[in-house]
Amino acid sequence: MSYKLDYISRLLQRTSSKRIEHYVISRIWHLLDNYDLKMTPQQYVSRELSQYALTDVYFPQIGLHVEVNEPAHYESEDRINRDLKRQKQIEVNTGHQVFVIDCREDILGIHSQIDKLLSKINSEVKEQIENGIFKPWRPENEHNPNYWKNNGYINISDEVSFFTIEDICLLFDADYQKTKRGFLRKGAIANPKNINQLIWWPSEHPRSGWLNNFDEAVGTITETHSDEKRKSDHYYHHAQGTHIRICFFHYTDILGLTNYKYVGVFTNDKEKSNPEIGTVWKRIGDKLNLKTTEISEI
Amino acid sequence: MSYKLDYISRLLQRTSSKRIEHYVISRIWHLLDNYDLKMTPQQYVSRELSQYALTDVYFPQIGLHVEVNEPAHYESEDRINRDLKRQKQIEVNTGHQVFVIDCREDILGIHSQIDKLLSKINSEVKEQIENGIFKPWRPENEHNPNYWKNNGYINISDEVSFFTIEDICLLFDADYQKTKRGFLRKGAIANPKNINQLIWWPSEHPRSGWLNNFDEAVGTITETHSDEKRKSDHYYHHAQGTHIRICFFHYTDILGLTNYKYVGVFTNDKEKSNPEIGTVWKRIGDKLNLKTTEISEI
């Protein structure tokens, strides 16, 4: 079975508990009928930790989120306002668009909204192709460090994701052996091409007391520790100066595989960090030049 | 939410445990994109009781079954032969066609098979429309006894299905009050227009010891009783003469509603029945004229 069939059928299966959402998502996929377009759930953000729920589907190549709102979303003014606020926040913080499908309508109404979405997606893809900037979905490249090394830079929209820390090191010509220390593995290593940049692989799962909360809508990672003393020590250590981290967020993907996904370049947010919350890292760049180590700001 | 959206989204949800089958079925539905075509699981046959597993999807208007064979279906010669035998049996007994989708292929291969299926369905529908015999899917009519009364006849391919025994009686102008006897309800009533025909509503669920095994592929219903004496008494009672039963099979549909579905006209099969197995009823007609009580043979 091909990777794409495996991937997309698992993605559809994931949503099957929400009957109408599932119907809408499967319809979008089948009617788009474009093997070069990646459709992704925003799974590498932990729902439990994030202040905001995730969008239902995301098209990374065109920066478009789709929200499938089952009738329950419209049950109260409060819920409606929360949804709108969240949508606005995603758009402002990520520069992405959010397309909402209102499932209070009947089958014809829902199909008609999907048709509008498909037209939008298709015309944006067409425009990218005409401008020579469309990047077809190539799962075999996404996970290949040599491919990105040759490419010369990595960008959030490229969906760069590695299976191992060794592959991250390979991308930067960093010494993989130095990531090991006894039984524990270090959570980061300096970029050999720029010692002011730390290559970092935080996890959504707690590790030796460390906990990382990645809020993708806002573009922040909050680093805390279950031990108050260690949390505040860590905060004071990063309260001064400018720290830069190239971040590969660790999560388990839809196929059940461990992934370290490139989610951008971050710096310490001195305003938001404090000894109680911990150290807050805010995203300052989407794109990283692997040779010059230059960061392109959002 | 409209009935059709409710119906089809539940049908898709039902198959979601089998990932690839589910992918294929949702693709068929979305790419057909024809609200007038009913797609149905063969749910009113109990999987536990039937000797043969069911087809995955059935299109009653064109008499076409679709089998989605996940790779496991091809794991042994024995399994392959069983599948073929069963397919043949369905085709011979029902006069329907069976279209098999082989999921050992990759995503392009599976999509290409689905494309062939869609062409086939679309051309058969087009032909029916041109010949003026196409009957669009109208769930509101399926369940309405007055609609069928006006129609003058019922046919298996029409998907006639009632929510209550009262509605069955209404169709035949039978006296609903006579179906009651104390706390129990009778399982049948004579057709007022032809006392040689019994209107029968057997259930897939055991009732006071009675158990009915409906094998749709073969077109038989086996009537047994948990009590050996009652089973053999029942057999001897039907071993002589010709008994005719107009059958509405009782089951719970995809929306969780009780249904009595018209599954044809049956007669006692003297060869297959015996005191051990019980009374076997074989289908002898698909279509029943409600005024003349004439049965059209298969």
Automatic annotation (TrEMBL), chains A, B:
At the top level, the lineage of the source is Bacteria
Cite the Restriction endonuclease PvuRts1 I-like N-terminal domain residue spans from the record: 5-136
Q: Which Pfam families match?
A: PvuRts1I-like_N, SRA
In this chain the PvuRts1 I-like SET and RING associated domain maps to: 149-290
InterPro entries recorded: PvuRts1I-like_N, PvuRts1I-like_SRA
What this protein is called in its record is SET and RING associated domain-containing protein
Q: Which organism is it from?
A: Niabella ginsengisoli
